[in-house]
Each structure stands twice: as structure tokens, then as C-alpha cells.
Please model this.
Amino acid sequence: MNIAVNINSIKNNLPENVRLVAVSKTKPNEDILEAYNVGHKIFGENKVQDLVRKYEQLPKDIEWHFIGHPQTNKVKYIAPFVHLIHGVDSLKLLKVIDAEGKKNNRQIGCLLQFHIAEEDTKFGLSLSESKEILESKEFKNLGNVFIAGVMGMATYTENTHQIRNEFKSLKTIFNALKNEYFSAIKNFSEISMGMSDDYQIAIEEGSTMIRVGSKIFGERNY
Ligand SMILES: *Cc1c(COP(=O)(O)O)cnc(C)c1O
Model:
């Protein structure tokens, strides 16, 4: 695996409006530094403990994204520095992130995760569940959290037609929320979709942020 080559070949082919989150979960600091040393600064992790350790050990100009569902009792550890939390799917979690944002005197960006895949193992909201959150009085009172957009994962399948349709559905959800709740809000702008096997399709369907791990760092051994 040549991490520098991999990351450059992905980035060289990205449209200007699409950013790459290099998913470094389970990978050692040396691997992250290989990407960092060719100028990459955006990394994603899905375990709070790993994210905190890497944040402490690695250069401070890295923009760290949390790409899973933080347990509510662990949000406090990432709240001081996390750039964006992908995968928020409840008002309860938003309230905790807000409270921790307040303690740190910052506004924490979140993406609402939607269930777009056929598999029922994947987390995420439906459009109506998200509306319920966004229309609630409790949500409107949150001052230290902001919704930066949406996130979703397609079904793990060879059927590219299905994957494409699932990404289309996330784009449709984004547009619906933008029109109804965020038309005047510039920072509701991100559609986080696309991983190693399907990011090309995701880009064609409007992704602004792809989350790619194994295609950069190689397969993970859990
Ligand atoms: C692991 C992970 C990725 C990256 O997966 P690859 O297939 O290795 O690119 C992207 N998004 C989420 C939420 C993940 O957990």
C-alpha cells in the first residue's frame, strides 16, 4: 500500500466542491502521517478513545471528523476539538453535543444521518423523524450545535443501480430540508456520502464529502 500515491490519485480526480475525509480508523499514526505529509489534513475516526489519542499525538492542524455514533457519555472527550460529527440520529444526542459545546464555548457541527439503505442494520433517521427533531422547541433552543448537512450509507451490494438510487434519496432529503428549514442558512451545505467502493457514484449523485478508508490505507484487520 502506498498511502501517498493512493490519496493523491483520489484527490486529483475530485471535483472542486467535494472534500475527502480520510478514514483512518484502526490505522496507526505513521499511516496518518504519510497522508498528512503529502498535504492531507482531514481525517475520520469512529471510536472516541482512538480519536482522542490520535488528536493528542498528531499535528494540531488536522481537522478531525467523528464518523459514527458517539455514546452520549463520551461526547465530552471529543467536544473540545472535533470538527464535524457525522452520524447524529437523535435529539437526545444533539442535546448532549450542545451541552458539551457550551462547556467548551464553541458551536459543534453535526450531520444528521439518514437511513437510505435497504439493510435494517444501518442506523439513521427517516425524513419525518428528522422533521420532528427540527421542528421541536427543544431543538430550536440549542445554541452550541449546528446542522451542517446530512450523511448516509448505501447498501453493501454489487447492484450499482440500487446504490445510485439510495444516494439520490439522500440528495432529495437534503434538498427537502434545505428548502423547508435551512434556506437562509449557509452552513447547511454538506452531503456526506460515498466510501471506498461507491464514492464515484456518490459524487455523481451530489456528494460534497466522501469518507474513504481502505482505498487509501488498505484493508482493516479488526
Ligand atoms: C469505515 C467507514 C468508512 C470507510 O469505509 P471504507 O470502505 O474503508 O472506505 C466510511 N464511513 C463510515 C461511517 C465508516 O464507518
Summary: The CA atoms of residues 163 and 198 lie 8 Å apart.
